[in-house]
Protein: Dihydrofolate reductase family protein
Organism: Parasediminibacterium paludis
Amino acid sequence: MSQIIFDCGISLDGFFAGDNRSPSNPMGGVSGDIHKWMFQQKAFWKHLNMAGGEEDSADGKLIEAVFAKTGAYIMGKRMFEEGEAVWPEDLFKADVYVLTQEKRAPWIQKGSTTFYFINDGIHSALAKAKQSANGKAVRIQGGANTIQQFLNAGLIDEFFIHVAPVFLGSGIRLFEGIDKHKFDLTIVDVISSKLTTHLRYKMTKR
């Protein structure tokens, strides 16, 4: 059975993205602050089929592990619109389900990435993603609002957050408006690194 997960970076004060997000200003311009640890890893750039990164460390193994375990992705329309023009071909190497009100034919890329546009809600997207994942994990890619929808519906099994040692002061909070009565949380891993702290939690629905 597919595990439902999310894996993302946040600032120390809990922000997933900055202010004024748009296709011309992805993540509100704070990606370099939150994801610096990831951009330094050769494993990240290898997944993009690009040369880059300065390190091949334990952080890179975590990046490889989440890509390896994921069989399908779900994301919101805003995240898709921010990435559509700049993401390399076949970035996800799996089926991606985009939550949107737009009716659009699937976007089939070279390789193994196909984007499907889902107009009838998170449960429909999840059912389709589970089928595509073929027993591997379904990763709720983002943005924050999409992750919040899945949390508040009681659909997340586990999450891995990477806390950057930076304060943003404002922006979009990852856990804004979460129903605190929906789950019990158990700490699974706490992994320190020079540029982030990796925290993995298991969620048990009450």
